[in-house]
Amino acid sequence: MWDNALPSFLIGLREGLEAGLVVSVLVATLVRSGHRSRLPHVWTGVLAAVGLSMGFGAVLTFTSAGLSGQAQEAFGGALSVVAVAFVTAMVFWMRRSARSFSGEIKEKVTAALGMGSGVLVVTSFLAVGREGLETALFLWTTGQTAGESAAGPLVGAGAGLLLATVVCWGLYRRVLHLNLTRFFTYTGAALIVIASGVLGYGLRDLQEGGVLPGATTYAFDLSAGIDSGTWYATLLSGTLNLTPQMTWLQVMAYGAYLAVVMTLFVRGVRGTDAPVAARPVPAASATSASVAEPAAPRPAAACGRRLPRWVLPVAALAAPSLIAGVLVAVGDAKPASAATVTVSAAHCGKGFTTPKPGRQSFQVRNSGSRTVEAYLIDPATAAVYGEAEGIAPGTTRTLIATIGGGSYAWRCVPTSGQAVTSAAVRVTGGGTVRAVLPVSEKDLAAPLAAYRAYVQRGLALLLTRTRTLQDDIEAGRLDRARKDWLPAHEQYASLGAAYGTFGDFDAEINGTTAGLPDGVKDSGFTGFHRVEYGLWHGEPAGSLARAARQLTADVAALRKDFPHQDFNPGDLPLRTHEILEGTLQQELTGATEYGSGTGLATAEANIKGTRELLGLLRPLIDKRDPKVSPSVGSWLRRTERLLLSARRGDGRWTPVGELPAATRQKLDGAMGQLLEELAPIPDLLEIRKSA
Q1: Contacts of 430 by beta carbon, 8 Å cutoff, 6+ apart
Q2: Which residue(s) pair with 426 in the sheet?
Q3: What does the alpha-carbon distance between residue 447 and residue 681 come to, in Å, rounded to a whole number?
Q4: DSSP string of 339-405, one letter each residue
Q5: Angle between helices 5-32 and 180-208 (to 10 degrees)
Q6: CB-based contact 311:198 (threshold 8 Å)
């Protein structure tokens, strides 16, 4: 993700330095003129500008999130073009104004002092706000190009702004000397190159959003021979927005913008390179001058022979293409046809030749008339190296896999009919690559049967305990009912993996007030938590007995119905993660707390249910990845120890809300890590048709 950080770092540094210099000049002018008491007005305007910029970024983010996929592409593309316009204007403005904007700011401050504090606030707000809005727009645009790896642009921008702050402080304190004219010239040229890439990316978004034509008219398409995940492709994409596949509109806009704007920029720089005599700086204004008035450049005679004006724009235009060409050659790209594999219900793997070791990208095209699941497998064991599911007729999907030494073949599974396997090829060299041994419904049949039996026994015990709870309440023994409530509820919680098959019974037996208009008074609030609320909030036995009888009746109905409920075998591995994911979101946040303070006891019961399920699935897990079970077991024990430490000597549990902050953080962290260790299991045990 850090390949996307450079453009944001550059814009953060440059815009931060511009805004920082403005603030420095404002502060220095007020201090020099004896108006130090007016400094809070400057900071008020600065903070307001920062808030406006952050709000603008939030508006862009939430506006985009509320649009459809195609509308998001069009919205992002339009803003990318606007961002390029702003950056271009900013580059040329600073090239012209670098020498004189200090004096302009001083004049505005002098005028503001004579018109009141409000004008000074507005002056600082407008001076900084413009830079802030430009920064927010450009960062949002570069964040869009980074996709899910937006942390890189954010960190890059933060680093640039931090460095700009340090530079401005150094200039203000006269401990740092910087030729600002030269700095803004070099960074301006770099931003023009980056902006050309942003323009191409924005136009591509507009094409995909249906605003501009030519979305499938490619100037070049190297996607079959270049893996977009390689370091060099990521670097070019993140910094210059050069991608393996670009349309003619992108390429022409990229080249035209870079050639025209860079030529004008260089011509303007040459026009301002005439020698300028250094002006004497009064001692009283030394601080201000050091901030905003850079030293004049040396006379041309001292600079040696100048290059022709056309050299820099031509070099800037040629450099990205030259770098891309060199890296493509180094990457040993192969023609698109070599990486294209044709699949169908009748023929599988046509065009597949012995691949080279390393990360490979295959274009899998369905040439048949039926939807096909395509798998790259080890023909000896049927272990899966990569998969492309649901390839419709006439469409192409990309399958990326890492190739090591071993045998490889394609297996095609149509929506109806028999699976077809291609001829195998042997790859020599390369490291060892682990493939996933596929799981079939037959493999999960025995664990599923054992788990159903476990749940059936658990429901029988649950019914016994809910009847005991009902008897306590009907007899008016509420103290005893409060003791018997927890064992009954823990028993239900230990059956967590079956929640998906309980259907409406789960809401009736263990539902909360979420979504109920009248909360705890709503007639739809039933089950364990309804009884819990009544027991711990002083409800008399007479009115609570009805809720207890309803709970027992619902449990009895569930026990009778469960043997006939459908349990998808593919759901079994999912429950290994989902039970405790729900625990982290519900019990460990207090969301299911209605007076008993036993959320941690319920969490411990959920761990018991997860452990039962893992025991049944462990042979399948260990056969596919022997490292998973030991790691999961270690974090299960660690999390359970933290839970049990909250159990008091008298058997009662500490409510979640009363846990010390450090203990709660440890518990949340342990549960989060346990979920990370459990996360691979659903993928390992996913039912695949290649089995």
Answers
A1: 357, 358, 403, 404, 405
A2: 407
A3: 14
A4: GEEEE-SS-EEET---PPSEEEEEEEEE-SSS-EEEEEE-TTT--EEEEEEEE-TT-EEEEEEEE-S
A5: 140
A6: no
Distance from C-alpha of 494 to C-alpha of 579, rounded to nearest angstrom: 10
Residue 532, token pair as written in the block: 């819990």
Rounded to an integer, the average pLDDT of 288-292 is: 41
* Range list of H helices, 523-570: 528-536, 541-561
Q: Is 313 helix (H, G, I), strand (E, B) or coil?
A: helix
| Residue found by looking up tokens 């869009």 in the block | 144
Q: By the 8 A CB rule, do 502 and 559 touch?
A: no
How much is the pLDDT for 612? 93
pLDDT tens by residue, 400-410: 888 888 899 99
CB 488 within 8 A of CB 548: no
Q: Could you give the CA distance from residue 685 to residue 691 in angstroms, rounded to a whole number?
A: 11
In angstroms, the Cα distances linking 68 to 139, 147, 209, 614 are 22, 16, 10, 40
Tokens of 142: 């570069």
Q: Please, how many CA atoms are within 13 Å of residue 251, restricted to the half-sphere of its CB? A: 15
Let me know: does 388 contact 690? Beta carbons within 8 Å.
no
Q: How large is the C-alpha radius of gyration of the chain?
A: 34
C-alpha dihedral, 320 to 326 to 329 to 330, nearest 10°: -120
- Asked whether the whole model's pTM tops 0.70, one would answer no
Q: Check if the beta carbon of residue 448 is closer than 8 Å to that of residue 572.
A: yes
Helix, strand, coil percentages (3-state) for the chain, rounded to 5, are 65, 10, 25
